[in-house]
C-alpha cells in the first residue's frame, strides 16, 4: 500500500526565544519526527559541529546551492545566509516521516507558499525583556548583534498572524507539551486522515 506523506512542521519565532532549546528537548523525548539540518554562512559557535547543528558553508558555496536549486527556502538574517536543504525534506516526507524545520520568519513564509499544507508554529517569548535577557544570557552575540536581533524580533512578532499556532515558551517542558499536542492534533485532522480511508473504501464513498 502507498505510504502517506509525512507532515511538515515549521517552528519559528524570534532569535533567542528558545527554538533550539525546545527542539533539543523534543529530540531527547525521541518523538517520531525528523529534524532538518540547515546550511549557513555564519561562523560555528563553540561546540557546534558541521552536519549536526548546521552545514557550515562559505558564501560562494551557499550561493551555488541557491543557483542549483538545492534549497527549499533561504534567507539573509543579520548578515548571514541560512537555508533548508530541499532533498532531505522531500525524501523524508516521501518516506512517510514527519519533518520539523527550525527557521526564521522570512524562510517560514517562503515554505508556506510551497507547502501550504504544512503546520506553522510561532514560538513567542513571555515578554521582550525576557527575550533580550535570553539572548544576553546565551553569551553568543555582541551588543550590536543583540540590538539587531531585537529589532528584527519586533518585526517578526508582527508576522505571527500568518502562522497556524502560537506557543509561548515560558517554561521548556510546557512549551514542548504544547508542541506535542499540536503534532497529535494535526495527525487527527479529518482532511489528513480521510484520503487513507478513501483509498480503502474506493472513490464512490
Ligand atoms: N523556557 C526558557 N526559559 C528560560 N530560558 C530559556 C528558555 N528557553 C530557552 N532559554 C534560554 O534562552 C537562550 C536562547 O535559547 P535558544 O538558543 O534555544 O534560542 P533560539 O530561538 O534557538 O535562538 P536563535 O534563533 O538565535 O538560534 C538560551 O540560553 C536558552 O538556554
Ligand atoms: N530561513 C532560515 N532560517 C534559519 C535556518 N536555520 C536557522 N535559521 C534561523 O536563523 C536564525 C539565526 O540562527 P543562529 O543559529 O545564528 O542563532 C534563527 O532564527 C534560526 O532559527 C534556515 O535553514 N532557514
UniProtKB/TrEMBL annotation:
Binding residue positions for ATP: 13-20
Cited InterPro entries: GK/Ca_channel_bsu, Guanylate_kin-like_dom, Guanylate_kinase, Guanylate_kinase_CS, P-loop_NTPase
SUPFAM superfamilies attached to this UniProt entry: P-loop containing nucleoside triphosphate hydrolases
GO cellular component: cytosol
Keywords attached to this entry: ATP-binding, Cytoplasm, Kinase, Nucleotide-binding, Transferase
Localization of this protein: Cytoplasm
GO molecular function: ATP binding; GMP kinase activity
Name of the top EC class for this enzyme: transferase
Domain (Guanylate kinase-like): residue spans on this chain: 6-184
Catalyzed reactions: GMP + ATP = GDP + ADP
Keyword Manganese: no
EC number of this enzyme: 2.7.4.8
Keyword Chloroplast: no
Family: Belongs to the guanylate kinase family.
Function: Essential for recycling GMP and indirectly, cGMP.
Protein's name according to its UniProt entry: Guanylate kinase
Organism: Fictibacillus arsenicus
